[in-house]
């Protein structure tokens, strides 16, 4: 585990994603079902079977590798060099480089010449776009990289309703002789529309025990704000699904009490 040894006093305030292997172990759940759901959305709401996908903020490539194994072409990009290196190594090890790639880039302005049938952004990565102009340029650029009628699925959660507090999300993970307890705490600040999040990894491995604490500032979304910004982009909101892939009624106003919500956006025109 690069840069993370038993001698470290604890890496407070560093980037979680710099510790790509630890991130990858922490988030080591099976994404196959979720990706089947995403592909079904791309086909149902788009124009036929998707063959080429874009994944903004692809991290360590856990989605890319599953898409590649399914025989699809997938391009991911990420702002963090450590996660990108991890993703590239993984794609190489699996012999998927001819179909899948991981490129450097920011969601705020990434663009490439390739055209995709659909795009997917997982587990709230979209919330790292803090400002309206970044959100707008991201959606504009993503739309321009999609074929006509292309679909963009965004997994995004919202601010808690008044009087409900965000809960601490905890889970355990293990790979080989490394095990960890993960705790993700959130403090919402409605006044600044920011969510201040702390991720704590308590890791046990061959080199001993270690605690990695990282801080994340993400955008705190309200449904009205999301819809208002979306109205200024080439996308229209076609459907919402809950975290169990259940279709939500059209009248649904999503909020933080619903956990994550999948937004199915369709490129207009
Ligand atoms: C929660 S991880 C998700 C990674 C991956 N999609 C997955 O499912 O494992 C969030 C990722 O967003 C990336 N990220 C944060 N801000 C970004 C930005 N502005 N542009 C591109 N990637 C960004 C981080 O480097 C990190 O890899």
Compile the SSE list and pairings.
Blueprint: H1 20-26, H2 32-45, E1 52-56, H3 62-69, E2 73-78, H4 81-93, E3 100-104, E4 116-121, H5 132-144, E5 146-156, E6 169-175, E7 178-189, E8 194-205, E9 208-219, H6 223-230, E10 235-242, E11 261-267
Parallel strand pairs: 1-2, 1-4, 2-3, 4-5
Antiparallel strand pairs: 5-11, 6-7, 7-8, 8-9, 10-11
The structure holds S-adenosylmethionine.
Task: Tell me the count of domains.
Answer: 2
Which CATH class of the largest domain applies here? Alpha Beta
Average pLDDT: 92
Q: Give the proportion of residues in helices.
A: 10-25%
**CATH fold-type name of the largest domain:** Rossmann fold
Total DSSP helices: 6
Oligomer: single chain
**Element order, helices and strands?**
HHEHEHEEHEEEEEHEE
Q: Assign an overall shape.
A: globular
Rg value: 18 Å
Work out the number of β strands.
11
CATH superfamily of the largest domain: Vaccinia Virus protein VP39
CATH architecture of the largest domain: 3-Layer(aba) Sandwich
Q: What does the main sheet amount to? A: 7 strands, mixed
The strand order across the widest sheet is 3-2-1-4-5-11-10
Cα-to-Cα separation, first versus last residue:
47 Å
Q: Strand share of the residues?
A: 25-35%
What binds here, in terms of ligands, is:
S-adenosylmethionine
As residue ranges, the low-confidence spans are 1-13
């Amino acid at each position: 585990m690069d840069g993370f040894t038993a001698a470290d006093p604890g890496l407070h305030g560093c980037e979680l994603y710099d510790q790509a292997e630890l991130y990858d172990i922490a988030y080591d759940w099976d994404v196959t079902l979720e990706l089947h759901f995403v592909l079904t959305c791309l086909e149902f709401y788009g124009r036929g079977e998707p063959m080429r996908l874009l994944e903004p903020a692809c991290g360590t490539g856990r989605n890319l590798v599953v898409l590649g194994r399914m025989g699809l072409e997938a391009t991911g990009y990420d702002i963090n060099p450590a996660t990108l290196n991890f993703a590239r190594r993984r794609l190489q090890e699996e012999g998927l480089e001819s179909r899948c790639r991981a490129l450097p880039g920011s969601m705020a302005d990434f663009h490439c010449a390739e055209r995709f049938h659909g795009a997917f952004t997982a587990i709230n990565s979209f919330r790292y776009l803090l400002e309206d102009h970044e959100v707008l340029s991201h959606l504009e650029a993503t739309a321009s990289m999609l074929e006509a009628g292309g679909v963009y699925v965004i997994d995004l959660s919202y601010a808690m309703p008044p009087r409900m507090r965000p809960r601490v999300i905890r889970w355990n993970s293990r790979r080989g002789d490394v095990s960890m307890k993960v705790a993700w705490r959130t403090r919402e600040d409605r006044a600044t529309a920011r969510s201040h999040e702390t991720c704590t990894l308590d890791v046990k491995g061959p080199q001993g025990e270690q605690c990695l604490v990282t801080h994340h500032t993400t955008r705190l979304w309200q449904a009205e704000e999301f819809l208002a910004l979306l109205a200024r982009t080439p996308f229209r909101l076609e459907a919402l699904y809950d975290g169990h892939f259940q279709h939500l009624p059209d009248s649904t106003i999503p909020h933080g009490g619903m956990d994550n919500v999948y937004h199915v956006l369709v490129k207009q025109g």
